[in-house]
Amino acid sequence: MLVIVLNFVELNYHKKDKSLIKYLCTTIILTIPVEGAIKLGSSKNWDGLPKNKSLFYSKSGHGLPIGNLTSQVFANFYMHDFDSFVKEELKIKYYGRYVDDFIICNQNKNELKKLIPVIKQKLLIDLKLELHPKKIYLQHYKKGVQFLGAYLKPGRVYIGNHTKENFYPKNHKLTLIKNTISSTQNDILAVVNSYLGLMRHFNSYKIRKRQVLKLIKTPKFSFYTSNDFLKISKKQH
Asked: Alpha helix (H) ranges present in 60-100?
């Protein structure tokens, strides 16, 4: 990755601080996050984490820390040539990518099938990346397609089932602890509002309304909501 990122900066960045940018890229990429890392909370919380999602089990020199803004930036640098290959050489008009997830739309299903081995070869030879064999989906647009935690349909974007399933338990937990200590309520409330904030990007009004009303209609519940059900706040006594 380092070589590709530095080459990208060399070719596309022409300001006076180029050497500084290259130095920062080198320092960040060569940093090993797991060295000196401190695991907070119970060790059991890590039991359900798949090994392929953890840098603690990655090969040396492989993987980027999820959540780092620089990881997203470096991914764009790294995948730039692939983006150009798809759009300019393969002439794909409808293509979108976020980090390592991408989507291609075409009216001809057979054309999409023909692209798979071509893209596999390009990723493997040039970027040393492999397409996950269980994450290649061919779906008719009327049925929609899952992408980046969302479910895309023509003219509409729905929240994905995985996100909904994660949200419901948080919501239920907040109801159960309505009479517990304030700090616990605040912690769970922050999580619920985080999910509600995420949902503003989807066609999710009915889901937000249904779940939020469950909370505020609970007896002795000391919270209120905005008219668009995008935020829950504590009532001041």
From this structure: 69-84
Q: How many CB atoms lie within 10 A of CB 215?
A: 19
CA distances from 30 to 1, 93, 116, 148 (A): 10, 36, 32, 28
Give the Cα separation of 87 and 223 in Å (integer).
50
The model's pLDDT over 40-69, given as tens digits with 9 standing for 90+, comes to 777 777 777 777 778 888 887 777 787 778
* Amino acid (one-letter) located at 114: K
| CB neighbour list of residue 181: distance below 8 Å, 6 or more residues apart | none
HSE value, Cβ hemisphere, 13 Å, CA-based, for 7:
8
Is residue 63 within 8 A of residue 55, CB to CB? The reply is yes
CB 189 within 8 A of CB 234: yes
Distance CA 163, CA 148 (A): 10
CA–CA separation, 13 vs 107, rounded Å? 37
pTM of the model: 0.69
Q: Mean pLDDT over residues 71-79, rounded?
A: 89
- Token pair, residue 117, equals 């081995």
Q: What is the mean pLDDT of residues 104-131?
A: 92
The pLDDT value recorded for residue 173 is 60
